[in-house]
């Protein structure tokens, strides 16, 4: 199955007068909810749907607990989750306080296995499917 792509024209936010350019962006077909993920896991394992739902719920709880404890969470060759911050720049180390923190973000860094799988992806522009 191919990943659907859209062609999107965007302006440069740093230079409003610059000519717009076209970019490729992935098109989301649908959003798969947690209960559907659990169903798919149950279909591929010996877990029943409720056990798969519980495993996902517990994973969420463990992920949040570890991230809030300052840990990164690595899932084998699949990848790892870690926190990053957005902060305001302050002139000196002595004047820097937690007030400069503007946001906390969760980042996922793909591991070898996921990168290899993505390298095998195929693509098709969504508008090309409509034309056919």
Q: Which segments are poorly predicted (pLDDT under 50) over 5 or more consecutive residues?
A: none
Terminal CA distance reads 17 Å
- Strand percentage lies at 25-35%
Which sequence of SSEs, written as H and E, runs from N to C?
A: EEHHEEEHEH
**Helical coverage, percent range:** 25-40%
- Determine the CATH topology: HU Protein, Chain A
Assign the CATH architecture. Answer: Irregular
Query: What is the assigned CATH homologous superfamily?
Result: IHF-like DNA-binding proteins
Shape, principal axes of CA atoms: flat
Strand order of the largest sheet: 2-1-6
Tell me the structural class: alpha+beta
User: Oligomeric state of the chains?
Assistant: single chain
User: How many discrete domains?
Assistant: 1
| Total E-strand runs | 6
Number of helices: 4
Using the coordinates above, name the CATH class: Few Secondary Structures
Backbone CA Rg: 21 Å
Average pLDDT number? 94
For the largest beta-sheet, the strand count, sense and barrel status come to:
3 strands, mixed
């Amino acid at each position: 199955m191919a990943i659907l792509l859209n062609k999107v024209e965007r302006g440069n936010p740093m230079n409003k007068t610059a000519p717009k350019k076209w970019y490729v962006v992935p098109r989301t077909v649908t959003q798969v909810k947690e209960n559907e993920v659990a169903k798919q896991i149950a279909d591929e394992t010996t877990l029943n749907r409720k056990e798969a739902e519980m495993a996902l719920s517990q994973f969420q709880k463990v992920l949040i607990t570890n991230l809030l404890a300052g840990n990164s969470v690595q899932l084998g060759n699949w990848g790892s989750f870690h926190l990053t911050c957005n902060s305001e720049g302050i002139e000196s180390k002595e004047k820097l306080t937690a007030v400069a923190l503007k946001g906390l973000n969760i980042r996922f860094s793909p591991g070898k296995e996921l990168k290899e799988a993505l390298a095998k992806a195929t693509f098709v522009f969504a508008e090309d499917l409509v034309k056919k």
